[in-house]
Amino acid sequence: MKSVASVCNATDKVLTLIRSCCVLLSSLAMVVLITIFAWLVFGRYVLNETPTWVEQLALVLVCYIAFLGAAAGVKDNTHLGVSFIREAMPAPLRRSLRILAEAAMTAFGLVMFLSCLELVAFGWGTLLPMLNIPEGVRTLPAAICGGLIFLFAGGRTIGMVHKYWIGRDTDETQPAEHPSSNAGAH
User: Fold this and answer.
1) CA 26 to CA 32: how far, in whole Å?
2) Is 29 in contact with 61 (CB distance < 8 Å)?
3) How far apart are CA 155 and CA 157, in angstroms?
4) Which end of the chain is more exposed for a tag (fewer CB within 10 A), N or C?
5) Contact status, residue 63 vs residue 70, Cβ threshold 8 Å
6) Does residue 132 come out as left (phi exceeding 0), alpha (psi in the -120 to 50 range) or beta?
7) What average pLDDT does range 14-36 have in this prediction?
8) Contact yes or no for 22/69 (Cβ under 8 A)
């Protein structure tokens, strides 16, 4: 049993590292987005020559920011969810519903990944105007997000199964919250 727990802990550390990379890449994309919009304003109002590529690049960057941020939200368990009914249930049912919800999120991530891969492949032969890069670059973050949702929710599902059924943990606390929400609790 300890080996399963150590594998779960090691996997969670890897997934946390991947989540940190998502946040870093989203943050860098946000900095680039702000910088290119500053260039757009400077070009339009000071140089009197609007850089038209900025809007197309901004659309691509927003896709990366949104989808990588959403994947990180799934890992942190800060994504949008309605859980008050589930959490009001008796403990055994609540545990089963938590696992079911995570399994559904895992299935959603897999379907999103596979569907978005088709979009990436479909758009790869077409170039984005003014950027001359494949259209698939714009849909690639959705596929990445789906794959990460599959990994993050799947990892949490396996962890819950181990915790509730194999480990016989009866701790009735809420599922893991965002790390910053417990900053002052120590």
Assistant:
1) 10
2) yes
3) 5
4) C
5) no
6) left
7) 96
8) yes
Q: How far apart are CA 48 and CA 176, in angstroms?
A: 52
Total length of the chain: 186
Report how far residue 136's alpha carbon sits from residue 125's, in angstroms, rounded to the nearest whole number. Answer: 8
Name the phi and psi angles at 55, rounded to 5. Answer: -65, -40
Residues 108-147 have pLDDT tens digits of: 999 999 999 999 999 999 999 889 999 999 999 999 999 9
Give the integer Cα–Cα distance in Å for 111 and 33.
30
pLDDT bracket for residue 21 (50, 70, 90): very high
The span from the CA of 168 to the CA of 151, in Å, is: 24
pLDDT at 183 over 60: no
Contacts of 63 (CB under 8 A, 6+ apart): 138, 139, 141, 142
Judge contact between 183 and 18, C-beta under 8 A: no
Contact of 70 with 105, CB cutoff 8 Å? no
| Distances from the Cα of 17 to the Cα of 14, 31, 69, 112, 113, angstroms | 5, 21, 14, 22, 20
Q: Which amino acid is at 149?
A: I
